[in-house]
Design brief:
The chain is α/β, with parallel strands linked by helices and about 350 residues long. The protein has two domains: about 5-180 and about 305-335, Rossmann fold (3-Layer(aba) Sandwich), CATH 3.40.50; about 180-305, 3-Layer(aba) Sandwich (Rossmann fold). Helices cover about 40% and strands about 15% of the residues. The chain has helices at about 5-10, 15-20, 30-45, 50-55, 80-95, 115, 120-130, 150-155, 180-195, 210-220, 235-250, 260-275, 305-320, and strands at about 65-70, 100-105, 140-145, 160-165, 175, 200-205, 230, 255-260, 285-290, 300-305, 330-335, 335-340. Strands 2-1-3-4-5-11 form a six-stranded parallel β-sheet. A six-stranded mixed β-sheet has the order 7-6-8-9-10-12. β1, α5 (about 80-95) and β2 form a beta-alpha-beta unit. α1 packs across α3 (about 30-45), α5 crosses α13 and α9 packs parallel to α10 (about 210-220). Mean pLDDT is about 90; it is low at about 55-60.
Length: about 350
């Protein structure tokens, strides 16, 4: 199938299809349209014309065209996490740019939950996933935290597997990560520099490196960990909103809050806007730097994860393994970067309360 044929099925111009497939940051008229274009490309096993032509003529420079699948473990299709959606867009485009075929994208949030995985028939779940892809499974990109038993089983099915994540897989497979513990340390250190010593945490806790990074940073500065300021929650906007409601019911509030991801922090800011007559204006910092973070009011301070580089190097490592370039497990760690906006301020500064979205 050509770009022109995809365009006809999607009801858009060939130029729009080309921009969507090649540019992860391209803004369609709607997210649904972008998803529709990629859905058609995946269903039709689209491969760039030049690569398909070279393969047909036997001039593909010794390389074959690989079928690559993607497994999203931190979200279900019905539950969007903008960070992982943005990272998926990068991976999709890199697969296309490298003349490979993206044959399937799965959403399986259960695989990120170690406790639930202990009570599931993992082989059955994996068999069900692979039932409709025949032999189109050369390589797999896992985006998000993944249970080790699941990793081992998936590794047996593919010639190459690469994990893109904040939590290390400890050499189970190749991995590209931006260390969640270091991300949390960077965020909490910034709050401490601003004079905060009453610092809360909102996010997942079980086997989560960002939570341990938060704890270690406080202890390193001899700051007491206040259990009531730790709110374990799923990392969604709705649960961020509910978490702030819980904080507002406390007798004493934390002056600073580290939120494990941006979309949860967005929910917290929306809650503060609704109850802004309480004059509670905590410093809130999170991590990811999703697009929406720069449009909140106040604009959200965060630790930026290099999504573009993470996706690019993941495909580089995967293809290098598929082509026989390396045998041992490779760990590639990229650094996060503090993005200072105006949702954080010195602990003594309470001159504004512009919490609204």
């Amino acid at each position: 199938m050509s770009i022109k044929q995809i365009a006809e099925k999607a009801g858009v111009s060939p130029a729009t299809v080309s921009r969507v497939l090649n540019n992860p940051g391209y803004k369609c008229s709607s997210p649904e349209l972008r998803n529709k274009i990629w859905k058609i490309a995946i269903e039709e096993n689209y491969v760039p014309n030049e690569a398909a032509r070279s393969l047909k003529l036997g001039t593909a420079k010794g390389d074959r065209i690989y079928y690559i699948n993607v497994l999203m473990t931190r979200m279900d299709e019905a539950q969007s996490d903008p960070f992982f959606t943005e990272l998926l867009h990068v991976v999709e485009s890199e697969i296309h740019k490298n003349s490979c075929i993206l044959s399937k994208v799965w959403y399986q949030s259960l695989f990120s939950n170690d406790r639930k995985c202990r009570f599931e028939n993992l082989d059955r779940l994996i068999d069900t996933m692979h039932a409709d892809i025949e032999e189109k499974c050369d390589g797999l990109v896992i985006i998000g935290k993944c249970n080790k038993e699941v990793l081992r089983r998936l590794k047996q099915r593919y010639k190459g597997v690469v994990s893109v994540n904040r939590n290390s897989v400890n050499c189970e497979v190749d991995e590209v990560l931006c260390d969640g513990g270091k991300i949390a340390t960077m965020a909490v250190e910034y709050l401490i520099q601003l004079g905060h010593r009453s610092i809360g945490y909102v996010g997942e806790c079980h086997n989560e490196v960002r939570y341990h990074g938060y704890l270690d940073t406080l202890r390193g500065h001899e700051i007491d960990v206040e259990p009531e300021y730790i709110i374990e929650t799923k990392q969604t906007e709705a649960e961020g909103y509910e978490s702030m409601q819980k904080i507002l019911q406390m007798e004493e509030y934390p002056t600073g809050i580290y939120c494990a991801n941006d979309i949860t922090a967005v929910g917290m800011l929306k809650c503060l806007n609704k109850y802004k007559n309480r004059y509670y204006t905590p410093s809130i910092i999170s991590s990811d730097d999703i697009e929406e973070a720069q449009y909140t009011k106040p604009m959200l301070s965060t630790v930026k994860l290099p999504k573009e580089e993470m996706g690019k190097f993941a495909i580089y490592l995967l293809l290098d393994r598929l082509r026989g370039g390396h045998k041992g497990s490779v760990r590639m760690e990229l650094e996060g970067r503090l993005i200072v906006r105006n949702s954080c301020y010195p602990v003594a500064d309470t001159t504004w309360s512009d919490y609204n979205i």
